[in-house]
Amino acid sequence: MNTEFKPVREGKVRQVYDNGDSLIIVATDRISAFDVILKNIITNKGAVLTRMSEFWFQFTKDIVPNHMLSTDVRDMPEFFQTTEFEGKSMKCKKLTMLPVECIVRGYITGSGWESYQKNGTVCGIRLPEGLRESDRLPEPVYTPTTKADLGDHDEHITFEESVDILEKLFPGKGASYAAQIRDYTIRLYNKCAEYALANKIIIADTKFEFGLDESGNMVLGDEMLTPDSSRFWPLEGYQPGQGQPSFDKQFVRDWLKQNPDSDYLLPDEVVEKTAAKYKEAYELLTKEVF
């Protein structure tokens, strides 16, 4: 029986379906920038994101458990066993997600660079003097944010504020949970950034999200180290002191900044180049032909 499923939650680029004791997370081919869903789709983007998350979840399961159960639609209800969902769907454990996005920055760029130019800090954390745009930081910096609803903006918070947020939800455990997710974030970034660098990609920054399983264990959820949640730069040609070309949607953001009257509609060549960048990053990192 092919039961009809409807998303119980829909983000800018992903749909979440309730499957009883699990969730089915579908990465669509939509793309967003500046908190707006663009009018184009990026061919195969959803499949690239799903397979890349799958790769990283396997690669880091020795550090922290993750929510992935399967990416094979044969392990999912019949509704998902179609070309629409093939390759884009991940069956996952249900978690109580923590309302903190765990941002880690290994290089100074983006909003961090803008902040540093003003006052020498990133999210209130003082950095060494004399850094250039895109410089590698002496140590990765953990800069958490709130987890905003669709249409709202995430807000930067301090580690202490993350403790307070978690303490209100989990009395007596806020400090422990905040420290756990910070430490896991740094460990995950260090392992994956080192691996990526050996495969000609710089992970400038990324974000992780965590939740608790039914036994109260900390589990890595959401997506992981995709071009949507990270800044990927090619190692070849990397040159501090300027912005870097990227494998992620920064290319789309840059085009939109240069074309403010575009009404969030990309030309075909930008769509094709973006799709190619996602695919190239996947192949470099996984050593698999997409």
Q: Can you offer a commentary on this structure?
A:
- The protein is 31% helix and 26% strand.
- It has helices at 45-60, 110-119, 159-169, 174-198, 250-258, 268-286; strands at residues 9-10, 14-18, 22-27, 30-33, 36-41, 68-70, 89-93, 96-97, 100-107, 121-122, 125-126, 136-142, 145-146, 201-212, 218-221, 230-234.
- The strands form 4 sheets. Strands 8, 9, 12, 13, 14, 15 and 16 form a 7-stranded antiparallel beta sheet that branches.
- Strand 2 (14-18) and strand 3 (22-27) form a beta hairpin.
- 37% of the residues are buried.
- The model has no long low-confidence stretch (mean pLDDT 93).
Average pLDDT, all residues = 93
Assembly type of the chains comes to single chain
Shape: globular
How many alpha or pi helices? Answer: 6
Low-confidence stretches: none
How many beta-strand segments?
16
Query: How far do the termini sit from each other?
Result: 32 Å
Strand content: 25-35%
User: What is the structural class?
Assistant: alpha+beta
Helix percent band: 25-40%
Largest sheet properties: 7 strands, antiparallel
> What is the H/E string?
EEEEEHEEEEHEEEEHHEEEHH
- Structural Rg: 19 Å
Provide tags for this entry.
globular; seven-stranded antiparallel sheet; five-stranded antiparallel sheet; 26% strand; 290 residues; 31% helix; alpha+beta
